[in-house]
Design a protein that fits this description.
Bound molecules: zinc ion
Strand content: 15-25%
Structural class: alpha/beta
Order of helices and strands: HEEEHHEEHEHEHEHEHEEHHEHEEHEHEE
Helix content: 25-40%
Number of strands: 17
Largest sheet: 7 strands, mixed
Distance between the termini: 41 Å
Shape: globular
Strand order of the largest sheet: 6-5-4-7-8-11-10
């Protein structure tokens, strides 16, 4: 069944007002509508539970010209990023991934004491810290003051700002240009894509390289990763859309790697069109594959919504049956993606007694919308639930390793995505 946005009465207003953030075309097609949802990083203090909570539409659209899958900018980034609860260093596998990248890229680009690496949205310095022992000068740009402070404490020069053309021109005027620009999981969060990419173009040396990592739209569609959709995540990229974006800004794709982070990401390598870098075969191969999947045609984007509804029904059926049998369930993790899943599916404390997180910032707070209490990880050992629902399913291997002792009381894990699956810690080791 093909449902077009124009068939849906509630899409009328969006159709009138929304324009593609990459090519400016009017947006007419719905990708998926996850209803109304609070901001996924707005964890609540106990005294806020009795107050009104702002909800915003979570309706994803797709541009029929450049095929960028995108959310309207419902919320100003100033509100989102001024105090950000996500500290990258709390994930040990993510820090290890960053370290391996720094060592690889230093060798590949022959970076040294004369080079400059700039990371856009450097978070708490989880990545740039690994360049320090390699003797490569770095600069971080980070809009959230609280996480930037943590980077500065690690000895990483960090500027608190939103990156774009203005910041790039200020840096160039002060004599700074980059041999390497790194942007990991930032492109999706940028409201003004053309200003951001235009800034990178200005800051990059003539033979410099940009590497960007972002979740791959192909994985999102293939594996039902609808919970990676949230208000802070404005754009969802296929490689064909990235090719369009690069061409618009005088950049060329010189390499691409498929990496496992965040449920399946791309790491793309960009350089100035006039540079001497020669594109690797991987670029043409991935473009061919996406073309075969139909990603250059709007039709490939219109069946996702039905798939998401089916996933919700399956997860709820499982949880309802478990509760009817008298089982206890708690969550593991309180990631942004968890909140989309919980709010869209309507999973509150009636299903999950509580959730836990390794980030102390979240302890004693409640998840936005569903108001599930967030406790330290040890709460699982005290409560001994029958099931632990893993919300950051992209880290499930790490979490099952760390929490395998739940088998002591017969506990099992539930992984909600791509579809609900029970993992017995006895069998999954
Ligand atoms: Zn477009």
């Amino acid at each position: 069944m093909n449902i077009r946005a124009s068939d849906l009465p509630h899409s009328t207003n969006l159709r009138l007002t929304a324009h593609c953030r990459l090519c400016g075309e009017g947006l007419k097609h719905s990708f998926v509508d996850l209803g109304m949802s609070p901001l996924c990083e707005s964890f609540l203090l106990p005294e806020q539970l009795d107050s009104m909570e702002p909800y915003f539409p979570l309706h994803v659209l797709v541009c029929d010209r450049c095929l960028l899958v995108q959310l309207k900018e419902y919320v100003s980034p100033d509100n989102i990023f001024s105090e950000y609860a996500y500290f990258s260093s709390f994930s040990t596998s993510w820090v290890a991934h960053a370290k391996a990248y720094c060592e690889m890229i230093t060798k590949r680009l022959r970076l040294g004491p004369e080079s400059l690496v700039v990371e856009l949205a450097c978070n708490d310095g989880y990545l740039l810290q690994h360049f320090l022992p390699l003797g490569v000068p770095v600069l971080g740009i980070e809009p959230a003051a609280n996480v930037a402070k943590s980077a500065i404490e690690k000895g990483i020069p960090t500027q608190v700002d939103f990156f774009g053309v203005r910041v790039a021109e200020e840096l160039v005027a002060s004599g700074k240009r980059a041999d390497l620009i790194v942007g990991n999981n930032v492109l999706a969060h940028v409201p003004d894509l053309n200003d951001f990419v235009g800034g990178m173009v200005r800051l990059l040396k003539p033979e410099g390289v940009i590497t960007l990592e972002f979740p791959h739209l192909e994985r999102l569609i293939a594996e039902n990763q609808f919970d990676t959709i949230y208000h802070e995540h404005f754009s969802y990229f296929s490689f064909v859309t990235i090719e369009h974006m690069a061409a618009l800004h005088g950049l060329k794709l010189i390499d691409v790697e498929e990496i496992p982070t965040h449920g399946g990401s791309l790491r793309i390598y960009l350089a100035h069109q006039a540079s001497s870098h020669v594109p690797a075969q991987s670029v043409a191969d991935l473009l061919d594959r996406e073309e075969r999947l139909g990603y250059r045609d709007i039709a490939a984007y219109t069946t996702f919504a039905e798939q998401v509804k089916r996933t919700k029904r399956k997860l709820l059926s499982f949880l309802i049956a478990a509760k009817d049998e008298g089982k206890t369930i708690c969550g593991y993790g309180a990631p942004g993606k968890g909140n989309t899943l919980l709010n869209y599916c309507g999973i509150g404390p009636d299903f999950l007694e509580f959730t836990v997180d390794r980030n102390p910032y979240k302890h004693g707070r409640f998840t936005p919308g569903m108001h599930i209490p967030i406790c330290p990880v040890e709460a699982i050992d005290t409560f001994k639930p029958d099931y632990v629902l893993i919300l950051p399913w992209n880290l499930k291997t790490e979490i099952v390793q760390q929490m395998r002792h739940i088998r002591d009381w017969g506990g099992k894990f539930i992984v909600p995505i791509p579809e609900v699956t029970v993992l017995d810690p006895e069998e999954s080791l």
